């Protein structure tokens, strides 16, 4: 004999149906309750935010819709209200809102994701979204160090954390080194100092990149001291936290 599953169904055609299964999990979104949360704050652009929330709900399959955790939903719409003029940030917050109302994804939505998005610019988000969403994938990274020809020691790091990964998707690719530092600070990526790729061609490509060559040419033009260059061969990869962030917010 099959087990009996008790279900309680609430709602009508005008309001998203809510289904409680065995009293443990409520599936469904009370749209008016969600919109009321937005209206309760004094946003000038609250109608626009409600439209975004409506769209976020619609992206979730009806069978997986659940009420969002207010610890995530409320700060997310607050930050969204400051970001509606940036399509990349707006989309990222919208995806976070949708995931917070998706039964399959909700358990992976970390409360800190809202704050993390607020500390990213559009280029950094595009860079993240260009990565393969697995922690096992490693990407090449170099540091350029400069020192006098006869100088001992490591010299001075002139360029830290350079890569061409995501270079074509960024509006300001000259800032990619700074972007990687910020992503590392936020624990979205990891940059171990004791690992590197065995394929040296990956690093040769970076060493010959126009950005690296332009810095070396500038040094030769402005400095009469004979200098030499050395490189640190590194890698960066997504953390599990970073992979979850992309899964939820992309």
Coarse structural class: alpha+beta
Ranges where pLDDT stays below 50 over 5 or more residues in a row are 1-23
Helix content: 40-55%
Provide the spatial order of strands within the biggest beta sheet.
5-4-7-6
Number of separate helices: 10
What order do the helices and strands follow?
A: EEEHHHHHHEEHEHHEH
Strand segment tally:
7
Would you mind describing this structure in some detail?
The chain has two domains: 7-118, no CATH class; 139-241, no CATH class. The strands form two sheets. It has a four-stranded antiparallel beta sheet, sandwiched between helices. A three-stranded antiparallel beta sheet has the order 1-2-3, with no helix packed on it. 25% of the residues are buried. With 250 residues, the chain is of the alpha+beta class. It contains ten helices and seven strands. Helix content is 42%, strand content 19%. Helix 2 (46-58) crosses helix 4 (87-100) and helix 3 runs parallel beside helix 5 (112-118). A hairpin with a 3-residue loop joins strand 2 and strand 3 (25-27). It is elongated, with a radius of gyration of 24 Å.
Q: What is the fold's blueprint, element by element?
A:
Elements: E1 7-12, E2 15-21, E3 25-27, H1 31-39, H2 46-58, H3 70-81, H4 87-100, H5 112-118, H6 122-129, E4 139-148, E5 156-162, H7 176-185, E6 189-190, H8 200-207, H9 210-222, E7 227-238, H10 240-249
Short description:
This is DUF4393 domain-containing protein. The chain has 250 residues and is an alpha+beta fold. The protein has helices at 31-39, 46-58, 70-81, 87-100, 112-118, 122-129, 176-185, 200-207, 210-222, 240-249; strands at residues 7-12, 15-21, 25-27, 139-148, 156-162, 189-190, 227-238.
């Amino acid at each position: 004999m099959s087990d009996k599953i008790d279900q309680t169904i609430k709602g009508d055609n005008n309001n998203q149906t809510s289904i409680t299964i065995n009293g443990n999990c409520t599936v469904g979104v009370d749209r008016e309750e969600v919109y009321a949360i937005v209206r309760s704050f004094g946003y000038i652009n609250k109608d626009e935010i409600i439209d975004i929330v409506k769209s976020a709900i619609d992206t979730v399959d009806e069978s997986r819709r659940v009420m969002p955790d207010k610890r995530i939903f409320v700060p997310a719409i607050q930050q969204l209200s400051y970001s509606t003029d940036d399509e990349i940030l707006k989309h990222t917050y919208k995806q976070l809102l949708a995931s917070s109302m998706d039964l399959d994804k909700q358990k992976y939505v970390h409360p800190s994701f809202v704050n993390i998005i607020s500390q990213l610019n559009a280029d950094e988000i595009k860079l993240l979204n260009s990565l393969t969403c697995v922690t096992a994938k490693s990407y090449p990274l170099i540091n350029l160090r400069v020192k006098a020809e006869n100088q001992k020691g490591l010299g001075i790091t002139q360029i830290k954390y350079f890569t061409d990964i995501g270079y074509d998707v960024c509006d300001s690719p000259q800032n990619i080194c700074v972007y990687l530092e910020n992503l590392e600070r936020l624990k979205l990526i990891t940059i171990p100092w004791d690992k590197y790729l065995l394929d040296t061609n990956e690093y040769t490509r970076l060493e010959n990149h126009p950005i690296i060559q332009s810095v070396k040419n500038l040094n030769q033009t402005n400095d009469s001291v004979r200098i030499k260059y050395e490189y640190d061969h590194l890698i960066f990869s997504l953390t599990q936290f970073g992979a979850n962030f992309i899964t939820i917010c992309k």
